[in-house]
Amino acid sequence: RSHCFLRRSAGGEDASAEQEPLSEADVEEGKVEEFLHFVRCRRLSVMHIIDCQDGVVELTPLDGTGFEKITLPVTANRLLIFRHDLMHYTFRTGGPSLAMQAWILSEPLAVEFL
Q: Does residue 56 contact residue 94 with C-beta atoms inside 8 Å?
């Protein structure tokens, strides 16, 4: 599984916070490769909604999966598990929110050079 991330709604001073762009050192340290590995290997997303006001999660299937888009209401103390390799999600709230999220990952593909 991945590390656990704490998600909270941005408000006040945090609302204008921006992610710093990647540097050459980030690339050399393998951060880009690490992120691409994460995106390729994530299978299940596990999100524990700790606190949420007027929230929804929209699950949008990838092309070719045969699933339909769905919008789920979320409230405090809920657990949401979905196949992140088959769909994208959007988490929207009407007020303050707090959630913990982690992913169940598949084994990385082994590359063998002959």
A: no
* Residue 51, amino acid: D
What is the per-residue pLDDT across 22-38, written as a single tens digit (0 to 9) for each?
A: 888 888 888 888 888 87
Of all helices (H) and strands (E), which one includes residue 20? none
Would the pTM of this model clear 0.90, i.e. be above it? Answer: no
What string of DSSP letters covers 40-103?
A: HHEEEEEEEEEEESSEEEEEEEPTTS----EEEEE-TTEEEEEETTTEEEEEE-SS-EEEEEEE
* Distances from the Cα of 53 to the Cα of 4, 95, 101, angstroms: 22, 5, 18
